[in-house]
Amino acid sequence: MLREPEYFEDQELTLIYVAKKLKEALALEQLLTEAGLDYLVEPDRYSGGIIFRSERVGAFFYVAPPDETAARETMRGAGYKPYEVSA
């Protein structure tokens, strides 16, 4: 379920996805809500484009650490590729 930042208090949230289009963000919100997972969505900037790089705004999805595994499995089952930190 979509939550406000205050709901998570002082927990350090984990970024699980960056939706680049509104339709994609709405579909992911529905998926996570139906799965019974608490999540936070915040707009933020990211760099996009291959030849002509530009700064864009996307919907950044976060979950609390205890829900991370379930959220990633739910997303993979629906065909989403969860955000992974580059090493």
Placed side by side, the strands forming the largest sheet appear as 1-3-2
Strand content: 25-35%
Rough outline: globular
Our count of domains comes out at 1
In CATH's first tier, which class applies? Alpha Beta
> Secondary-structure element sequence?
EHEEH
**CATH topology call:** Alpha-Beta Plaits
Structural class per helix/strand content? Answer: alpha+beta
Helical residues, percent: 25-40%
Largest sheet: 3 strands, antiparallel
Number of helices: 2
Instruction: Please give the number of β-strands.
Output: 3
Poorly predicted parts:
none
State mean pLDDT (0 to 100 scale): 92
- Assign the CATH architecture: 2-Layer Sandwich
Radius of gyration: 13 Å
Overview of this protein structure:
The chain has 87 residues and is of the alpha+beta class. It has one domain: Alpha-Beta Plaits (2-Layer Sandwich). Helices cover 30% and strands 29% of the residues. It has two helices and three strands. A hairpin with a 5-residue loop joins strand 2 and strand 3. It starts with 13 loop residues before the first strand and ends in a 10-residue tail after the last helix.
Question: What layout of secondary structure does this protein have?
Answer:
Elements: E1 14-19, H1 22-34, E2 40-48, E3 54-63, H2 65-77
Antiparallel strand pairs: 1-3, 2-3
Short summary:
The chain is an alpha+beta fold. The chain has one domain: Alpha-Beta Plaits (2-Layer Sandwich), CATH 3.30.70. 30% of the residues lie in helices and 29% in strands.
Descriptors:
87 residues; Alpha-Beta Plaits; 3-stranded antiparallel beta sheet
